[in-house]
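Q: Got a minute? One more chain.
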Amino acid sequence: MNKGFFFLCFIILASQTTGCQIDYYLKSGYGQALLLKNQKPIQEVLEQLPSEKKRKLLLILNAKDFAEKDLGLSPSENYTSYVELNRRFVTYIVQVAEPFKLQYHYWHFPFVGSIPYKGFFDQGDARAEAKIYDDQGFDTFVRGVRAFSTLGWFRDPILSSMLDYDDDDLVNLIIHETTHSTLYIKNNADFNEQLATFVGNKGTELFYIKREGESSPMLEVIKKKNLDENLFSQFITKELSNLETWYRDHPKANKDSKIARLKELQDRFGQLKFGTHTFDYFKKMSLNNAVLLGYKTYMNDLSSFELLFKKKGSMKDFLQEVKALEKSDDPKQDLVRLNAQDDTSGHRVYQ
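A: Always. Here it is, folded:
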């Protein structure tokens, strides 16, 4: 798809809105067009890159092949080209939340619906957007991202920013993003991201089992990381529920009492026993509602996915069941209902 066509699409979108949204769509279109313009076929760049980058490109191709053939994710022409960015992150994400309520601010976009984050190719633009909400008293969070999915609208290239990941995290990323291009339910960002998180974690385990066997040293690392992620998911799910109750029970909470309450949350985190250093950063973070809701989007209560996966016995069968939720208005609740259906032994399975 050429650059001119991409601009035409964004001009059509921009014509349907007013004000700063026009500028946003055009800047986003320009940023995406530059990625398309600068991408080169994998085979063309393989021999030109340093050996470590070449090795990681081949790992990505293997992970993509495994995701499509072994896991049952949708085949695509994603990750068949490469873009050298010469910067750490490809985009910057802005998240905004109410200051005394665990409630996101949502942005509304054509095709994908309501999203609890907004992406910018320029860090300055992202910070300017966050400042608009900072000045109104909202909680905000700006973070850089190394990859994103266009959900099948374009061929997603391999970005040089992705190669900064460790091998297992890189495989996880490819499976995560391929999950998005396989199933994306409009207006259900939390479900979409939690599904991709689960499939990425489980799929990475399965990838290394096939690649290196059950005795793989890398597999041991991955299992420890996944155990830590499950532990953190359980922790943050409970803490967010308790924090919601605290906000509701303290309608006159102020900035100081909120800071003290979030410090208590971090203190309880410090009592957890992790097997890796994956979440060490959390105890040093400056927490606010926008940061915490990010964890809700990606990691809140993944147990329903785990239960269905165990029930189905394979990732292909699991995904086939989940794809049946594509038209659901409440896929998370319908997933719970799937888990409550009769299993093959005639017993009922409950969440």
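A: The two ends are 45 Å apart (CA to CA).
Q: Perfect, thanks.
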